[in-house]
User: Fold this.
Amino acid sequence: MEYLEDIDLVVCSCHPAAIQLVSQGLFPCSPLALTLAVSMDMLEFVSDLFVNMAPNEQAWQQPL
Assistant:
């Protein structure tokens, strides 16, 4: 990992932490007890990567 950042949030019932993170372009990895969020840009990159990568033909072979 090349980039980590701590973000302090002021959370109340009218402004949940998950909503605040999504508005900042981050995807919360837990709905309630948040300890990690991932950039939406990184999620889009990984999604594009897996859609466009060559299939692993070894994974489909049955062991002898």
Observations:
- The first strand starts at residue 26 and ends at 28.
- Strands lie at 26-28, 37-39.
- Residues 7-51 form one domain.
- Residues 40-52 form the longest helix (13 residues).
